[in-house]
Every structure is written in structure tokens, then in C-alpha cells.
Amino acid sequence: MRLTENNKIKLLAVEMDAIRRSARTSRLDRVRNGTIRDKMGRQKTIVEEIKSAQLNWYGHVRRMDNTRLPQKVLNWLPQKRRKRGRPRINWMESVKKAMSSRDLRDGDWDERNQWQIVSDAGFGQRPETV
């Protein structure tokens, strides 16, 4: 399933509502979301966790042999003509966008530990390796 902007907004709202309820803080208390996140120890949003899970699964599939079914499905291109108008963003485009925001390139998935560290790190620079 694609994660559209509308779905992201709804997910973030539900997540923040759940965090506020568990912190026993109402919107009427006028406490900022960042403050409540710090109080509850939730730095990553659910959208960031979904994107890192997508990248982990994508790396897992890319490391598979080309004869495996998930690899075939990932590389499959439909032969049917597209409808008129602007094409919808597909799952692969969102994965490529998440890869570029984390400075990942094709072939980086071969090193499993580094791929998982970078995909879980979130947006921005690669973490320093020791």
C-alpha cells in the first residue's frame, strides 16, 4: 500500500492523540507536541518507522536471488497502458525518495548491517562507523 500525504497526516494525528492520552495531557493544556514526545521518549514518528521498515524490507528483497518470487514481483513491469493524467506515486518511488533522503545508493543493500543502521537512523547524514 502506498503511503500518501493524506494518510501520513491522518497517521501522525492518531499517533499524537495516542501519545497525548498516554501522557494524560489534553490539547486544552496547550503543551507542544515536541514537549510531549520528549516526555514520553518518542523521537521517531510512526511515518519514519514505516519508511525505515520499508527500506529494511527492500534491502532484504534486493539481497535475494533473482529467481525468488519477491524479487520477480519487485522487478515486474505491467504491460497494460496507463490511464490519462498524472501517474500516481507508486511504492518504488517512495522507497527511492527515502533512500535519497538517507544518502543510500543502489548496491548499498549488499552490506546488511550498514543498510539496517542507515535505514533505521532516519533522515540526514549517514551515522559514523567505528
Question: How would you describe this structure in keywords?
Answer:
130 residues; mainly alpha; 2 domains; 6 helices; 55% helix; globular; disordered C terminus
Secondary structure blueprint with pairings:
Layout: H1 5-23, H2 33-40, H3 46-62, H4 69-75, H5 91-101, H6 112-121
Helix pairs in contact: 1-2, 3-6
Task: Give a brief rundown of this model.
The chain is built from 6 helices and no strands. The chain is mainly α. Helix 1 crosses helix 2.
Kindly provide the radius of gyration, computed on alpha-carbon positions and rounded to a whole number of angstroms: 18 Å
Strand portion: under 5%
Count of separate structural domains: 2
Mean of residue pLDDT values: 85
Low-confidence stretches: 123-130
For this structure, the quaternary state is single chain
Question: What this model shows, in words?
Answer:
Helix content is 55%, strand content 0%. The N and C termini lie far apart (37 Å). It folds into 2 domains: 1-43; 45-77 and 86-124, no CATH class. 9% of the residues are buried. Helix 3 (46-62) packs antiparallel against helix 6 (112-121). With 130 residues, the chain is mainly alpha-helical. Residues 85-107 are annotated as: Disordered. Residues 94-107 have a biased composition (Basic and acidic residues).
